From TrEMBL:
Residues 1-24 are annotated as: Disordered. It holds the Pfam family Cytochrom_B_N_2. It is a multi-pass membrane protein. One of its GO terms (cellular component) is plasma membrane. It catalyses: a quinol + 2 Fe(III)-[cytochrome c](out) = a quinone + 2 Fe(II)-[cytochrome c](out) + 2 H(+)(out). Residues 22-250 form the Cytochrome b/b6 N-terminal region profile domain. This is Cytochrome bc1 complex cytochrome b subunit. Gene3D superfamilies: Cytochrome Bc1 Complex, Chain C. GO terms for biological process: respiratory electron transport chain. It comes from Bowdeniella nasicola. GO terms for molecular function: metal ion binding; oxidoreductase activity; quinol-cytochrome-c reductase activity. It is found in: Cell membrane. The chain crosses the membrane at residues 51-75, 123-141, 153-173, 219-243, 264-292, 343-364, 384-405, 420-440.
Amino acid sequence: MTTSTNSAAQKKPRTMSGPAKAGDFLDSRTGAAKAVREFARKVFPDHWSFLLGEVALYSFIVLVLTGVFLAIFFVPSMAEVHYPTDQLPTSMQGVEMSEAFKSTLELSFEVRGGLLMRQMHHWAALLFMAAITAHMFRVFFTGAFRRPRELNWVVGFTLLILGLLAGFTGYSLPDDVLSGNGLRIADGVAKSIPILGSYVSYGLFGGEFPGTVIIPRLFTAHILLVPGLILALVSIHLMMVVVHKHTQYPGPGKTNKNVVGYPVLPVYAAKAGGFFFIVFGVIALMGAFLSINNVWNYGPYDPSPVSAGAQPDWYMLFLEGALRLMPGQTEYVIGGYTLSLNILVPGVVIPGVLFTLLGAWPFIEKAATKDTGEHHILDRPRNAPVRTAIGVSIITAFLVLVIAGSNDLVATHLGLDLNLITWVLRFGFFLLPWLAFYLTKRICLALQRRDRELVLHGHETGRVVQLENGAMMEVHRPLNPYERWTLVSFEDRAPIEIEPEVDANGIERKGYKADRIKQRLSRFFYEDRVRPVSPQELAAAHEEHAHLASTSVATLDPKDQEAVYRALEAKSKVDSNRS
């Protein structure tokens, strides 16, 4: 018996290149192709304010890269040594110091590129915190924290706290006079906590300050614990951005059900990659040309000296300023125990209230609106006057504390009295935020009224014509649909209404007191408001303008006639849309 095979029926195996084989191998075992394909088609809007979050992400990448280099050479030990007499800087030769400070000096003067890496790491940390703060305020002012992004706001808020913790732990590692004074302040704040203060301090420093274990503990937290948590939360943050889709600013064609922008591949990925190298390059230039944290000018930590003009990094200046503004007389002895309100209030209470308010803000605003809908269109800050005013007042209070943290430099550079500056800032801390709140709210309401007039009457052209009956009329140029959409597409939020205190049978209703608090909160937010222009109001305004214009169109010059005809055309479009 013979068998014949049909060669045409045999399929020739497909040949694949190396990258294709690797991709096929990975996809067949992980199913990653579907996820990559879905992510590559994800659309992101194009607006400059969305780059603030990217600056924070890219700064963190620079922090990780430079931090790995520094961790190789840094010695996290508080063992006492003497600096070699044949190494730079000459001012430190033979000086007794810790291993941590010695390795920091050697990183700066003996390791090739070490000083550049140190300064890049420090500048990247400052930029990281600045970008996070700006990004969170952008989210706050535009209402991007509303449902379904409340949890993402909490994640971002936690990232802000972790950034502060990362900055503090890294700032304290060189063990110089400046960082040592910062640790002494932290020890004082910990000890000011009633009942638990001494236990917190002993647990942190492993005994009486400064102990011998704080630098190794801070090093472990700085390179392992805090970065690990930041990486995990950044991953969760980005995953939520993809799942919830990106927010976008109001405009024609933009709704809560779509995203207008560019896909990740190839447009957005190329732009993001280029922007990363821009951020990296700027940080590298700053590290190369802008000197920062020259620890050899301060010397190793010694509890006795406190250098003048010593300030922490900018993101911790508010705490320094609060401590400087608090009167020192607010210290009391109760039952043999000292209650240090002069440290407890500025070091614990004020930051606690500030951060609690920020972290809980989405839920506070939700209680004022009872809004359960999803929001993917951002607010214009002027359309949320109370929220915008509160944000500006918080920034104002923060700036007052920052200036207070540098009150000695302000006094010496401007030739002013230090005590006078301190008293002015004390009053300013309580008065300026309220003034900023009032002015910001009034400005937002005025801008809303201006937008309303602009929608109803159009742009002023400066041309005034006289009608047949002798009346004078200014020719207005109507808004195009794109301008009008932006000015009218926002929600008309009104104060919430609650049921009466007693029902029809005269029985007191449960939960009335809680509802009453929510109603007062809602009135605080939305009692003063400007409603968006309704289609009926817009049509009535166009009819009035068209009637005035049609009475004497023939008497106008060609330019004015063109403007009037444009207004009539806009009116007809509004009428057709209504029908």
